[in-house]
What does this fold into?
Amino acid sequence: MVFGLFDKQPVIDPSSSEWIFDAYGWALQNFDADLFYSNTVLVRPTNEYFPGTVNSVHGMAEIIFDRVKVYAGISHWPTLVKDPSECQFIESQQIQIQGALRGPEGIADESVEDSQRLVIPYNPQQINNPEGMIATYAHILSHHMGQMAKAPPPGGIDYWPQATELLAIFLGFGLMFANSAYNFRGGCGSCYNPYAQRDAYLSEAEATYALGLFCLLKGIPDTEVTPHLKRHLRGIYRKSSREIANKVQGVDHLKRIQGP
It folds into this structure.
């Protein structure tokens, strides 16, 4: 019995699991459940999903961001990628989005002036940490998208950073959030660059669990997920998938949500 003791421990505590289910319900109700099932993909950290080569840091930042916008379903949003050294602090930006908030019914307007675009800063240090950069972009966009929800996320403003990370996972970026939630700081000093890392609000286990819920709702088998996860997260993911599958009532409730 001793050897099976730790296997019986849940991946995350029950209150965190309940919050993740509730947050998925919030996302489905506010950000188009039909689009989630019909168009949203699990974004893989591969050249197939992020093709293209450029010769500058800024060019790489732009090409990655453009793909993030496409997968998030907001390629029509008027945005402008800028080096943070060129950005002025703007507390709150208001942009005009034509057509649907996200999805193929959105209407792009290339005539929008730069001053009216949503400025997206990037961290040049993250060029060598593309998963961290992708997750950072997705989190920034989810922050702005979350502000357009009809209702606050579960837990309210106190859980805003976690809710917007969850929203980014809901948009398909769960692999990047799980893989970049924690970065080992050991080894030689020249091997670790703290400025290349991102600020994470969901733990590795929580992000992996949220990824598992995404894949269960989308019917994505484990074999299409685990090869793209860090090795030590693969067991956590499989265990999360089993635990989530056993929460039949919670899963059925999410599947019945059709949005407003």
